[in-house]
Write a structure and sequence with these properties.
This protein is an alpha+beta fold. Helices cover about 55% and strands about 20% of the residues. Helix 1 runs antiparallel to helix 2, helix 3 crosses helix 4 and helix 4 packs antiparallel against helix 6. The longest helix has about 60 residues. The protein binds adenosine-5'-diphosphate (ADP). Adenosine-5'-diphosphate binds next to helix 4 and helix 6.
Length: about 250
């Protein structure tokens, strides 16, 4: 009798376990699908902007060519070029996130890295940019392409945080504890404590048209290069992102 009871309890338990596992699998699938949906809608939104501008530009370009308006043609081509860069950056962000290459580290000139990063972001007139790189005197070894990507993401976030109102963006440097720190401080909208906990998570964004990959990529790239990324912020006052990269050992 007892053995029979034991058997049926075992059967029920096994059935429950199987049901739980099936439910868990369903949940994981649903979560994955939701993440893909979120990503697709974010990327779709972001890509539509430059594509619309490109379409309008192509129309204006045709008129300018028909009218042999050289200045108009040159202007339309410039805008086209810029918008293609914007669309390209969105695609690169996605690819960067899915397949980050092992870093190809070389000895880099920080000034050059910052200059190169600044070519990827338009700094509005009302933003005051100050750069002081004297805090690092030792050479840095890092992947220049990957670090340019990190800096570009931080700079463009800082500009976006100013919501078109303008403000200060300061890039400073320091050395200590075997690390070189590159510090990006802005006087933008700042980050609330709740948001602060999530900003490095992939797909986390507070922007209506954001994708939420910029900081996740930045963190991965910095860590791949042996460094760390830190953030400090006060809502409404601004934010400070610090990229810490290991200093080259002097022999
Ligand atoms: P996205 O820019 O697509 O939103 P990110 O991963 O670059 O994705 O940023 C995630 C979120 O972190 C942003 O939506 C924003 O809320 C916050 N954030 C990042 N940088 C700043 C900054 N400098 N000032 C205020 N908030 C920021």
């Amino acid at each position: 009798m007892n053995t029979k009871n034991d058997k049926s309890v075992e059967n029920v338990l096994q059935q429950n376990k199987a049901e739980l596992e099936a439910m868990q699998e369903k949940l994981i699938r649903a979560e994955r699908l939701a993440a893909i949906g979120e990503l697709a809608s974010g990327v779709g939104h972001e890509l539509r902007n430059p594509l619309n501008v490109i379409r309008n530009c192509a129309y204006l370009l045709k008129i300018a060519i028909d009218e042999k308006d050289e200045a108009g043609t040159a202007e339309a081509l410039k805008v086209l070029d810029k918008q293609i860069d914007v669309a390209n950056k969105i695609v690169t962000d996605l690819l960067d996130f899915t397949r980050i290459k092992p870093p190809a580290q070389t000895r880099v000139d920080l000034q050059k890295l910052i200059d190169e990063s600044l070519t990827w972001v338009a700094i509005p007139e009302q933003v005051k940019l100050s750069i002081d790189l004297k805090g690092i005197t030792q050479p840095l070894r890092t992947d220049p392409e990957q670090m340019t990507r990190v800096f570009t993401n931080l700079i463009s976030n800082a500009i976006q945080a100013m919501n078109g109102k303008g403000g200060d963006l300061t890039i400073t440097t320091a050395t200590g504890g075997g690390y070189a720190s590159i510090v990006f401080s802005d006087t933008g909208c700042g980050i609330t404590d709740d948001t602060l906990k999530k900003i490095f998570e992939p797909l986390f964004t507070t922007k209506p048209k954001g994708i939420g990959l910029g900081l996740a990529i930045a963190k991965r790239l910095v860590e791949e290069n042996g460094g760390q990324i830190e953030v400090a912020s006060e809502a409404d006052k601004g934010a400070t992102f610090t990229v810490k990269l290991p200093l080259e050992q002097r022999s």
